[in-house]
Write a structure and sequence with these properties.
This protein is about 35% helix and about 25% strand. By secondary structure, it is α+β, with helices and mostly antiparallel strands. Strands 1, 2, 3, 4, 5, 6 and 7 form a seven-stranded antiparallel beta sheet that branches. A hairpin with a 4-residue loop joins strand 2 and strand 3. About 35% of the residues are buried. The mean pLDDT is about 90.
């Protein structure tokens, strides 16, 4: 069984997100930064990763970025995208990213079971983890969209 460093685990989750965004929207995104203290965006999708140690997976994006992403996914105009569309898209993006990462982690000690994703939203949102938690954070995007990924375990 392979042991992974936080950077390797971050590469797996960000690689999964990059692949999923490309498949569902034809958009190419890349890791822009590894800002560990990055604040969440307006809308956050959350999922529990149940394993030996357990953890949480977060994806966040601002409404404007989700409108663009939904437009690419559905072919609808940005102005026609509803709040429900954005929430559904972010949850599905999180679900597909976690599933993709789970497959990539099969031969490691980081196997996990997934909870159902849910969305929380608001302004000036922060989620604080215990001091001894490992936090992996990545800011991904391109000229059209920006997404933040965070894994806490």
């Amino acid at each position: 069984m392979n042991t992974l460093t936080p950077d390797e685990l971050g590469a797996i989750f960000s690689g999964a997100l990059i692949e999923v965004v490309s498949k569902i929207s034809s958009l190419s995104i890349a890791v822009l930064s590894k800002a560990q203290d990055a604040e969440f965006c307006e809308i956050v999708s959350v999922m529990s990763l149940n394993s030996g140690k357990g953890g949480m997976l977060f994806l966040s994006a601002d409404e404007s970025d989700l409108r663009v992403l939904c437009s690419y996914i559905t072919g609808d105009r940005k102005d026609d995208v509803t709040a429900d569309d954005m929430h559904d898209a972010l949850c599905e993006l999180l679900n597909m990213t976690a599933g993709n990462a789970k497959v990539r982690l099969q031969s490691t000690e980081r196997m996990f079971k997934l909870s159902s994703p849910f969305v929380i939203g608001g302004s000036a949102m922060s989620i604080i983890s215990k001091k001894r938690s490992t936090v992996i954070s990545r800011h991904l995007g391109n000229g059209d969209i920006s997404i933040k990924l965070k894994v806490v375990y």
